[in-house]
Structure formats: structure tokens, C-alpha cells
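[Discussion] Sanity-checking designs against the backbone

I'm trying to build intuition for which residues belong where. Below is a C-alpha cell string of 113 positions. I'd appreciate it if someone posts a full sequence so I can compare it with mine line by line.
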């Protein structure tokens, strides 16, 4: 099956505690080039997953400690950034419809989740 670049649509929870559970906003989209990888093979799927994770990190704001809200709400800020990355990762993996990529995602180490 031919692969094409994936487009990751990323959403982050709003910073308000009252709205965080129900309201999300699109904050960025990032293209992850996968054309050179055959995501049907496990080693390539693992490499693709790494690319997707890196793109999600960048698009979701990078290091939460550098965000202005970190000083006032460090735990909440870190959690919002983590949720954004996880949502982006899940969306990209689901959107790729590649079983090897699904498997690579499922086999991530617990500390990666």
C-alpha cells in the first residue's frame, strides 16, 4: 500500500479548569513525511511513530515549562501539553490506517505514554 505524508491535526484543552473537559481548540497542523518509509513493516512503523511523536511535541508547544502558565499552574500546564501530544499521536496513528503503525503505538513503553 503506498504511503503519503500524514497531516496531524492537533488540539489542546483550554486552560480554564471549568472548560477543559469539554472545549478544545485546533492549535496547529504539521506534515510528517512518511513517503520514504513503508509503514507496513514494523521497523519503519516504529521510525514513523518517532517522527509523529516529534511533530506532536513541536506542534503542541514543546516544553511545557517554557509556557507562561507554568509558573501559576505547573501540573495543569504539563497535563494540557501531554494531552495535546497524546491526542495528536492517536489521531495520526488512527488516520494512517496502517496496522504496523497501530502495533508500534500499542507497544510503546509505559513511560512514553
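Best answer:
Here's mine. Compare freely.
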Amino acid at each position: 500500500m503506498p504511503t503519503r505524508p500524514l497531516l496531524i491535526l492537533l488540539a489542546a484543552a483550554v486552560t480554564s479548569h471549568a472548560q477543559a473537559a469539554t472545549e478544545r481548540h485546533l492549535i496547529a497542523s504539521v506534515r510528517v513525511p512518511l513517503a520514504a518509509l513503508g509503514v507496513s513493516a514494523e521497523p519503519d512503523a516504529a521510525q514513523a511513530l518517532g517522527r509523529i511523536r516529534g511533530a506532536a511535541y513541536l506542534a503542541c508547544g514543546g516544553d511545557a515549562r517554557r509556557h507562561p502558565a507554568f509558573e501559576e499552574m505547573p501540573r495543569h500546564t504539563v497535563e494540557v501539553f501531554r494531552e495535546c501530544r497524546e491526542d495528536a499521536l492517536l489521531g495520526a496513528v488512527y488516520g494512517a490506517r496502517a496496522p504496523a503503525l497501530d502495533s508500534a503505538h500499542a507497544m510503546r513503553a509505559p513511560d512514553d505514554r
